[in-house]
Write a structure and sequence with these properties.
Length: 273
């Protein structure tokens, strides 16, 4: 289940060789995937990139056969990279990488795009490589820019899609524009959506992971297992203890939201601090 839009030349022994680029803003993830790929025969990692802009340049220069592409990256997402490189003369195959759970990636299965979950499984990576080799051997299939846009839109990752979050408001259903949402939190098995001066119960999704997927095109970050924050509305970042932080939001109540220690590194990278 890979987008195959290019071709490679087999070796003299007709063995399929694959040149890869890894795109991920988390160095440990790059190292982990590179190590797994180094154990797979006929696979070579020719470069790695930690941002969308660098990835596009590397792909244009190195002309890899396959790109392992992280979805959630600062500034521009992996979907942006996929759309840009699809217009290249010899675009690569793409395998998306994601930390989302199985529910969040079901759409990938339905739309014939391969994905690998974090933390990476060696067996799963090997299966993805085998799929890539099969497509290369059969000269793959061509996916047009229009088709790629449709696939990405079905996943919920296109910046052009219209996203509204439905909430309850005095017995009626109110549709919120994500740009007006300050933060979301999980509380007593409910998802609470907070705006500038109001809070609403969200009935359209049951978990923050599902909501995070829907809001992928927008600048939201999971600071804590119970909080999903719009980075545009952070007023202050306050160092806390044990490597943690508190966020002072710019809503009416100046709500304080925690950043857990294991998410602090990525959070600082997102904001460039």
């Amino acid at each position: 289940m890979v987008i195959s839009v290019g071709s490679v030349v087999n070796s003299k022994e007709d063995r399929v060789k694959i040149r890869c680029i890894i795109v991920d803003d988390e160095p440990p993830a790059v190292d982990e995937l590179a190590y797994i790929l180094s154990k797979i025969e006929d696979v070579e990692v020719v470069a790695s990139s930690n941002s969308a802009s660098k990835a596009i340049k590397e792909i244009r220069t190195k002309k890899p056969d396959l790109v392992f592409l992280d979805i959630h990256m600062p500034v521009q997402s992996g979907f942006h990279v996929a759309r840009m490189v699809s217009s290249f003369d010899k675009p690569p195959m793409i395998i998306f990488a994601t930390a989302f759970d199985q529910y969040a990636v079901r759409a990938f299965d339905a739309n014939a795009i391969d994905y690998v979950l974090k933390p990476f499984s060696e067996n799963r990576i090997r299966k993805s490589i085998e799929r890539a080799k099969e497509l290369i051997s059969s000269k793959g299939k061509t996916v047009s820019i229009k088709e790629l846009d449709r696939l990405i839109e079905n996943i919920g990752g296109t910046e052009k899609s219209v996203v509204r979050i439905s909430v309850e408001n005095k017995g009626r259903i109110l549709l919120l524009d994500p740009e007006g949402i300050f933060f979301c939190k999980s509380e007593e098995k409910k998802i609470i959506i907070s705006t500038q001066n109001n809070q609403f119960v969200c009935h359209s999704v049951s978990t923050l992971s599902k909501l995070e997927t829907i809001l992928l095109p927008y600048p939201f970050f999971r600071t804590h297992r119970a909080y999903l924050v719009n980075l545009s509305y952070i007023k202050e970042v306050i160092p806390w203890f044990n490597g943690r932080y508190l966020l002072n939001m710019s809503d009416e109540k100046s709500t304080e939201i925690p950043v857990s220690r294991n998410r602090a590194g990525n959070f600082k990278k997102k904001l460039g601090i």
